[in-house]
């Protein structure tokens, strides 16, 4: 059969040469040579279509009379590889898929433990019945067909995102990653379905995100389990960060009651990066800047500034200055009069 398909290939190759040669009509001898070669190739092609040949072909399959309570957990085979003998024209029709698919009647086969197994002999007989009467099935390149199915009563399970996401500089992930849908329905044999508590996505890799991104992500296959839908939409909400500077008073923390403290300066600047949507609501009330007596040591010239309170959405904190000079003075505590 290789010769048959080689002849077809040769025919179209010569056609290409023929039409190209039309541009060289000035060379009459060459034109006549090509014309006779084309005619002889056409006769050769027609003769090949009338001869019996052997060819390897993938035949399409169609599944019929599927029980109402059955759903395939895995997509069943859509093609079967065979070797056929017939006239070239009939084999060409098989190759071009002009014939009806081979019909697999599910009512003719028994099921057991979530599987339908079609033996090689039964599959061979089914294929032969679906071929033209003139076509001979020379060889079948499959031992059997194994169809995995489940009952149509599905169970909903959550989707788990498997991801590696990095955010661009001066951006922030605004909210949690959204999955749509966040749950999927699975179909499987009862012995399998109870062991599946969640469905993972394929690994999603997104690098240096600078804007909100939505992508379709496939779910990981589990043998013997049908998942609907087979993919989910993953949305990563991203927001730009913008700078903001605040002037904060310095709070004295853990200092004894019998001392007074003066710092130089009395205030310090805190520079932060905040999401655009939070810019207006970010004010001094959300921050606290301290000097802590626990950091005090004798003859220590400066005390470090500590930002003890700030919103969790801010990024890239900096304090200027990061430490201050101070004076500590003892003060006398007035005694309260005793009531007689």
How is this structure best described in words?
- This protein has 5 helices and 26 strands.
- The model has no long low-confidence stretch (mean pLDDT 83).
- It is of the alpha+beta class and 340 residues long.
- The chain has helices spanning 2-21, 28-50, 88-95, 120-130, 190-193; strands at 52-64, 70-72, 79-87, 102-105, 111-112, 115-119, 136-140, 144-151, 155-160, 163-167, 171-173, 178-180, 183-187, 199-200, 204-209, 213-218, 226-228, 231-236, 238-253, 259-264, 267-275, 288-292, 302-304, 306-309, 315-320, 323-330.
- Helix 1 runs antiparallel to helix 2 (28-50).
- A hairpin with a 2-residue loop joins strand 5 (111-112) and strand 6.
- The chain folds into 4 domains: 1-50; 53-151, Beta Complex (RNA Polymerase Alpha Subunit, Chain A, domain 2); 155-236, YbbR-like domain (RNA Polymerase Alpha Subunit, Chain A, domain 2, Beta Complex); 242-330, Beta Complex (RNA Polymerase Alpha Subunit, Chain A, domain 2), CATH 2.170.120.30.
- Strands 11, 19, 21, 22, 24 and 25 form a 6-stranded mixed beta sheet that branches. A 4-stranded mixed beta sheet has the order 4-1-3-7.
């Amino acid at each position: 059969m290789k010769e048959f398909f080689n002849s077809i290939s040769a025919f179209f190759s010569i056609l290409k040469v023929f039409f190209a040669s039309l541009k060289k009509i000035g060379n009459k001898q060459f034109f006549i040579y090509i014309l006779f070669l084309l005619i002889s190739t056409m006769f050769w092609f027609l003769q090949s279509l009338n001869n019996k040949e052997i060819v390897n072909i993938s035949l399409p399959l169609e599944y019929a009379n599927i029980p109402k309570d059955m759903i395939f957990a895995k997509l069943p085979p859509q093609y079967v590889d065979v070797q056929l003998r017939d006239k070239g024209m009939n084999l060409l029709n098989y190759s071009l898929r002009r014939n009806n698919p081979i019909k697999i009647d599910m009512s003719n086969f028994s099921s057991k433990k979530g599987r339908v197994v079609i033996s090689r002999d039964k599959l061979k007989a089914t294929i032969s019945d679906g071929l033209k009467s003139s076509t001979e099935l020379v060889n079948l390149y499959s031992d059997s067909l194994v169809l995995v199915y489940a009952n149509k009563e599905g169970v909903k399970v959550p989707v788990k995102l498997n991801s590696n996401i990095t955010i661009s500089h001066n951006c922030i992930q605004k909210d949690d990653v959204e999955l749509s849908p966040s749950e999927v329905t699975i179909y499987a044999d009862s012995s399998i379905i109870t062991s599946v508590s969640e469905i993972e996505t394929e690994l999603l890799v997104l690098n240096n995100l600078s804007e909100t991104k939505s992508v379709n992500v496939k779910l990981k296959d589990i043998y013997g389990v049908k998942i609907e839908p087979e993919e989910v939409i993953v949305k990563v909400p991203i927001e730009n960060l913008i700078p903001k500077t605040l002037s904060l008073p310095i709070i004295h923390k853990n200092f004894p009651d019998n001392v007074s403290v003066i710092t130089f300066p009395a205030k310090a600047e805190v520079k932060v990066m905040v999401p655009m949507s939070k810019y207006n609501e970010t004010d001094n009330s959300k921050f606290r800047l301290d000097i802590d007596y626990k950091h005090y040591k004798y003859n220590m010239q400066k005390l470090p500034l500590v930002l003890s309170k700030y919103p969790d959405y801010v990024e890239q904190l900096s304090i200027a200055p990061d430490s201050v000079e101070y004076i500590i003075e003892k003060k006398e505590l007035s005694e309260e009069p005793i009531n007689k």
